[in-house]
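Case 242 in the screening queue. Each case pairs one protein sequence with one candidate compound; here the compound is S-adenosylmethionine. For every case the pipeline is the same: read the inputs, emit a complex structure as C-alpha cells, and attach any notable structural observations.

Predict complex for case 242.
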Amino acid sequence: MKQVKPYKNKPGDKKAQVKEMFDNISPKYDFLNRLLSMGIDRGWRNKLIDLMKPYQPKNILDIATGTGDLAILEAIQLSPEKVIGLDISEGMLKVAKEKVLEKKLEHIIELITGDAENIPYENDTFDAITVAFGVRNFENLKQGLKEMNRVLKPGGIALILEFSQPEQTPFKQAYGIYSKYILPFIGKIISGDQSAYSYLPESISVFPYGEKMKQILMESGFSQVNIYPLTFGISTIYLAKK
Ligand SMILES: C[S@@+](CC[C@H](N)C(=O)[O-])C[C@H]1O[C@@H](n2cnc3c(N)ncnc32)[C@H](O)[C@@H]1O
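Case 242 output:
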C-alpha cells in the first residue's frame, strides 16, 4: 500500500504529520465534517451503533475518537459502563472534552491521549472497539489492527467505519469530481490548512476497501469479518470478531 502523508513537502513521519494536521484543523473539524459530507456522516455513525446494539458491550474503546462524536453516541445509545476515547491529537481531544462536559457524560466517557499502534491497555480488556475514519491515518495499518485484536476480549467485536470507493457509474464519476476538486477547495478555504483536504481524497484513493480490507483484518488476527457498504460505497463498515 502506497503511503500518503498530509504534508508532502515537509519532513517527518506520517504519524507526526497526521497529529500536526488534526491539531491544526480541530477547531473547524466538526463544522467541515457536516458541510463536506452534507450531514451523511451522522447516518453512517448511527448505522454503526445499530450494528453494535445486539452485542450490548459494557466496556468500549473508541480509537481515533477525534472530537468524540462516536464515543458520545455510544455512551447515550448503548448504556455502557465505560467508553474510553483514545486519540493522538490533543487539539481534537480538547474539542471532545468540551462536548463530553456539555452533555454531562464525563462519568461514562474517559478521553486519553495515545497511539492506536501501541494501545496502553492489557490484552483482552474490551467488549467492543470502534474506529471511525481513523484507520486510514495509521502509519502502519496492520500494527494498529493487531493492537485492536490484542486488547479485545475473546469473542469481542471491532467495528471500523472508513471511506471506500464507489464502483458504479455514475456515482464513481460524480464522487471522483467531488473529492478531487470540490472537497479540497472548500476544505482549504474553511480550515486554512492548505494540505489537509487534499490529503483526504489522496489517502482514500490508496486505501484498501471491501474484500481487500477484509483480508487484511483476517491476517491481523480476526476470525470473522462482515462488510457493510454505505451510500453507494462511499463508506464501508467492517464488523470483525476476535
Ligand atoms: C478523521 S478523524 C476521525 C475522528 C472521529 N472518529 C470521527 O468520526 O469524527 C481521525 C482521527 O484519527 C486520529 N489518529 C490518527 N492516527 C492515530 C493514531 N495512530 N492513534 C490515535 N489516533 C490517531 C486523529 O488525530 C484524528 O482525530
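Case 242 observations:
- The two ends are 24 Å apart (CA to CA).
- The chain has a mean pLDDT of 94.
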